[in-house]
Amino acid sequence: QQVYLALAFGASGIEYYCYSVPEGMDPQYKHCMLERDNVTPNQLYYDVKTVNEEIQKFASPYLAYKWNKAIGISGTEDQTFRVCVIEYESDLSTKTSFNDTENYVSSTGTLDMVVSQFVSEKYGEAYMFVNFSRNDGRVNTVNAQFKNCGAVAIYGGAGYSGTPEIVTLQEDGSFSLELQYGEGAFVVPLA
User: Fold this and answer.
1) DSSP designation for 169
2) Which of 70, 106, 124, 145 has its CB 3.0 to 4.6 Å from that of 174, i.e. a possible disulfide?
3) CA separation for the pair 80, 153 (Å, rounded)
């Protein structure tokens, strides 16, 4: 969840700690990427490797945009209100929602989510949708509605191959995404 949330707030690089087990740590400490021998990679190492490979596959389109705003949207089925105060503009001071957008109309999710707007003088707008729910195995079904475009390119998500999924919008401009816990998708409106 932390990697996609960092991206949703405009991160251009990700660092991970702790790589090896610090000397004298409790034997139950499991938050490192190596086993206690500080040589053997553990499951966390492979999970981080998978996420890094996934996000690296859409780094180029993501980095072509600049982060602008982020809003939190409480889920329709599970309202934890963890996101009810997440509404930031790029200066991190003025709380607002997405107003005067070229493409975004609205979105809902069955679980809590963060939606971020990115902008580019050359390419226009893009959006990051991140499942911000509890880790309880449920999928967040996201329904979004855009305007002034006929399709979207969707980058990222579990098992992302490196080729964006081009989704033709419904007549009302809507499309849907399924996001696992902590998963995100970078969405670029297409003409």
Assistant:
1) P
2) 145
3) 30
